Amino acid sequence: MRIETAAIEGIVAITPPRFGDHRGYFSEVFKDAWFRENVADVTFIQDNESLSAQAGTVRGLHFQIPPFAQGKLVRCLAGRIMDVVVDIREGSPSFGKWLSQELSPETGKQLWIPAGFAHGFATIEPNSVISYKVTAPYSPQHDRGIAWNDPMIGIRWPFDERDMVSSDKDKTLPRLADLPGHFSYSTQQPKD
User: Fold this and answer.
1) pTM of the model
2) Thinking of the domain 2-18+43-178, which architecture would CATH place it in?
3) Residues 6+ apart with CB under 8 A from 111
4) Which of 25, 44, 66, 154 could form a disulfide with 133 if both were Cys (CB 3.0 to 4.6 A apart)?
């Protein structure tokens, strides 16, 4: 598997090799021992999947606070997305900075997002299907987020903001400046 470290410490892009012939291809998209040795020593406890029917759908920016903070391994099974992470670790040299990766089934690229980052995506194509492994179960009491259109973060989405579709919940998320600190860079661990 090919590993690319990102400009923000902790974020890793992974592209599994494909072995193809006239029938198509075969790819091992996840191997626990390899992932633990080369990316992060974590345990994934659940796989999630979402479909966004319309291009220009934005989901996020979401995260969970301790003790249910989640690491995510994200890939796109159909369509195409702009996957986005924002560093929300207090004291991090990249606090409030964002980066994005385009994910699609054609590339097979996956993005590892550890706890301490807000995550979201925008669909570039209709009927985009996202699959992601998580290190903690969903907990409504620990579910948080920041506004996907926070001007202080300044994410350059692939569509004009007026044309993007989001949930009522995501439209009311706070800005990063109004968010209490839940993660610390110095310890690389969620705060208690």
Assistant:
1) 0.91
2) Sandwich (2.60)
3) 11, 12, 13, 14, 73, 74, 75, 83, 85, 101, 103
4) 44
Q: Tell me 174's DSSP state.
A: P
Q: Which two tokens stand for residue 72?
A: 């995510």
Query: Mind listing the pLDDT tens digit for each residue in 85-141?
Result: 999 999 999 999 999 999 999 999 999 999 999 999 999 999 999 999 999 999 999
CA 178 to chain centre: 21
Task: Kindly report the number of other CB atoms within 10 A of residue 59's CB atom.
Answer: 22
| Residue-wise pLDDT tens digits, 38-95 | 999 999 999 999 999 999 999 999 999 999 999 999 999 999 999 999 999 999 999 9
Coil, helix or strand at residue 34: helix
Count the neighbouring beta carbons within 10 Å of the beta carbon of residue 190: 17
Indicate the domain borders of the chain: 2-18+43-178
Contact (Cβ atoms closer than 8 angstroms) between residue 136 and residue 70: yes
The Cα-based distances of 56 to 59, 95, 111 in angstroms read 10, 26, 20
Task: Give catalytic residue positions.
Answer: 62, 132
Q: What is the C-alpha to C-alpha distance for residues 129 and 9, in angstroms, rounded to an integer?
A: 27
Contact 14, 74 (CB under 8 A): no
d(CA 30, CA 73): 10
